[in-house]
Batch of 2 targets.
Target 1
Amino acid sequence: MTPAPVLSVRDASQVFGADVRALRAVTLDVRHGETLVLIGESGSGKTTLLRLLNGLQTPTSGDVCLHGASIRAQDPIEIRRRIGYVQQDAGLLPHWTVADNVGLVPWLLGWEPARRAGRVDALLDLMNLDPRRFRTRYPVELSGGQQQRVAFARALAADPDIILLDEPFGALDAMTRHALQQQFLGLKQRLTQTMVMVTHDLDEALRLGDRIAVLKEGRLLQIGRPDELLRTPAHDDVAHLLRYRAEGRRP
Ligand SMILES: Nc1ncnc2c1ncn2[C@@H]1O[C@H](COP(=O)(O)OP(=O)(O)OP(=O)(O)O)[C@@H](O)[C@H]1O
Ligand SMILES: [Mg+2]
């Protein structure tokens, strides 16, 4: 029997202003423990869909449910505890130290300072950032890859069941990107979280995703395992995206 979905998006549309249709009747489930990758060109609605999943954005129509209950009805701080979020471009608070950034959600939850500090150090260790060197630095004093790792640590801080990652390796050079992808794969084996990750890099999607959802102009074209998409693309655009892969070229 398939377990109940952790998150389910039902017929969700998002309209901005008079005429920007960022999402059009998207329906999908996020399954317990999986890494679901959202892929699509710039402007296809990936970030908007991710923001619906943690209630930062309320759909114009349709609904999003967390463990079966509409996300609209839930307490925003409780959602932050249960769903970690790594924003596009890390999104660290510039005037806060690394320790304060990583400890943000525990602070919101009112954890004692000593418990917060212990958690911050453990997470920096997990991300291969020596706490003694990094704890007191500010985001501007970090490389892009280090900022992304701090953002990932922040998303894990209150041990959420779900982590949303918006192009976590997007702005990095190829070497750093590859190193962080490897680190992510290692972490995935140690963590039990359900993950939803945005990318526009097909290789990354195929390497990291248990399932892939392909978006175009706000529509969900197909969702399935990488081999399903490769074998039976449901749409010309999916076939086109994957043909490059089969031919060993990049789109
Ligand atoms: N707050 C907003 N107000 C108006 N339009 C918006 C807003 N947020 C997003 N959009 C528009 O909605 C569409 C989808 O945007 P979204 O950020 O979800 O795309 P994306 O797939 O994440 O793109 P990228 O790969 O460039 O990050 C785009 O046309 C964008 O301009
Ligand atoms: Mg985006």
Note: The chain has a mean pLDDT of 89.
Target 2
Amino acid sequence: MTTELPAGFRAGFVPITGLPNAGKSTLMNSLCGTRLSIISDKPQTTRNNILGILNAPDYQAVFVDTPGFLKGRNMFERSMVNAIKRAASEEGDLCIFITEPGLPPESKVHLFEPLKQVRCPLYLVINKLDKENTDVRVKAAEDYFKKLLTVAQVFHVSALTGGGLKELRAGIRDGLPEHPPYYPVDQLTDRWERFYAAEIIREQIFKLYSQEIPYSCAVEIELFLEEEGRDDQVLAKIHVARENQKPILIGKGGSMLKRLRETSAKALGTFLKRPVELHLTVKVNPGWQDNLVFLREIGFYDKK
Ligand SMILES: Nc1nc2c(ncn2[C@@H]2O[C@H](COP(=O)(O)OP(=O)(O)OP(=O)(O)O)[C@@H](O)[C@H]2O)c(=O)[nH]1
Ligand SMILES: [Mg+2]
């Protein structure tokens, strides 16, 4: 099927960068109108670049949600850092940098370095304006980043409530080059159900467990079976980094794992729009964060 594209159709890649917890994933989901990237109130929820495609009649914006800027302490974190660099400095037609009102902590300032190498126009997006924010704090962020980076345009938004997104969408459209669409115009993302199944379970882990647990877990989908006449069967293995984390994940008499299974199966069913039978197992996999073979198996790779 071929559809005529309007003259002057625009398309391009738009990486969304920022510190952990700035609201990158929330913004991408709101801009695309679907929940593609998982969200939590804890920093470093997103671990890999995730594509979200906004299809409008006269443009296609391919957003790349990136992990929050961080220091790469192990192989796993370094692959996250590279994912950001790749998206921001090499692959973008337009780069969004999202931040909360107020000044960034002094200790984080060095993390903005990759943004100085961005060759495409950079949009500064000040987020969370639905929260109690003073004009002074909004202006402080704006002035600070305008001085630090080459900012093409500034937008004030609430990714959560949708405030200011109309203006941001219009700005994105105008900033994209003329180009045919990169993906079929009915496509929302480049990831497949297995990836989302793992991410949805990870989101529930972020919701149910505290402290280091969410950061110590990796989710591997061992089986994703679709058969006529029965619910989808999903078998997921949760890898934890240390022996003592396994009983925490499982809980007394298996109570926590049961909750995790129930909430994840429900969320997965909502996402897939069909019921799912989910089975979970827990495996101690010491040092998985530094195991390249394992990282590749669960979808992390380092192109560099
Ligand atoms: N009040 C308010 N909260 C927001 C807004 N945008 C995001 N949040 C909240 O901020 C927290 C972090 O949001 P995420 O979208 O996961 O942030 P992120 O930048 O993707 O975080 P990482 O993936 O961890 O780097 C969540 O609790 C969101 O609900 C907003 O506009 N207003
Ligand atoms: Mg995120």
Note: The pocket of magnesium ion (ligand 2) is lined by residues 24-25, 37, 45-46, 65 (CB under 6 Å).
